[in-house]
Amino acid sequence: MVTESLFEASSERLARALAHVAVSDDTLERLRLPKSVLKVSVPVRMDDGSLRTFPGYRVRYDDSRGPCKGGVRYHPDVNVDEVQSLAFWMTFKCAVLDLPFGGGKGGVTVDPKQLSQLELERLSRRYIDAIADFIGPDVDVLAPDVYTNQLVMGWMMDQYSTIRRQISPAVITGKPLSMGGSRGRDTATADGAFDVIETLLPKRYRGDGPPTVAVQGFGNAGATLASLLFDAGYRVVAVSDSKGGIHAPEGLHIPSVRKVKEEAAELEAVYCDGSVCDLVEHERLDAGELLELDVDVLVPAALENAVTEANAGAVGAKVVFEVANGPLTPQADDILADRGVWVVPDILTNAGGVTVSYFEWVQNRAGLYWSADEVRGRLRDRMTAQAERVWTIAEDGDMTLRTAAYVHALRRLGEAIDAKGSAETFRARR
Length: 430
Prior knowledge:
- With about 425 residues, the protein is an alpha/beta fold.
- The protein has 15 helices and 12 strands.
- A 7-stranded mixed sheet has the order 9-8-7-6-10-11-12.
């Protein structure tokens, strides 16, 4: 059986939006393929003295609205199709949030858990050595993604500055504060997702009690979002990580779950004897079982393709907020839409990270830094405004929220592309 690639699935979302918006042929042609795709070898001297070479990638998909922008992930499954798809999504995510960026993405095919700290630093610096001519504050701006963090971003910025012989903080976002990072960047994805949930869920939820929530993926974004929801009075009844999950119908005490998880690095540690673990009785479940729980809100916050044609029919939630990139396939979208399940798309829900990355880029270029409250307020205003706009487009056009988000982005992308001249422009001058 031929499996649809991630990029083919991404392109299918674009095709569906085109039924609801008129854009020029030039726009479609420009968005059909990425602007550039770079594949590099990343040689690393290991601690035992041996040399290993890892495949690395950087894709600039479109820069019609500004420099490309996107994260770098370290994962054993990184490949060119995945990176290209993520760059495509970033193009539309930046347009939805009205950021002056295009879409980019990068990655290295590696299991970072198998590397020492010194090997990880060498890998990060050699990756920048390989792509330095391909990136820059006005060309392509990097950020953290799966298994990369502030420390890795700091190494990358330092290496780029060494190559250019000048301090260049604006080439990398998600850096440590001491190197020009922005306050609020480490929680931005969760903060932005929370703003979208607070804006859109009341338009659907009509229950008497607090909404129930299941979070698949208890990493940085998922755990932080679960805490925000818990603090706001939502009933978070289930969470899971790569090794399993826990479920308590009356609601989990998320601060305790996070404390145990952070101390032991896995949710399995919650299955123990002791006061913290006994605060709420819970049952074990796997990630697949979590998707089937009868809850008001499902938050897929792990990796791509968590919900497919095979399991979409078993999803028990009424609303799905995509915090991961591409957690639902187009076939899953169709099944959930037929069942009346709302899906709030990734290019809106998880755009908080790139939005605060934009704020960091602006602060780096201005040399003027904002308070945490100012960053949080600016993020809330932008996420709320664009969520309301996507909602209005969906209602007015009788379309899904995902299609509405793509329509919203396409209009902005089309305007930028056509502003440089289109076939219609030059035909008119004949």
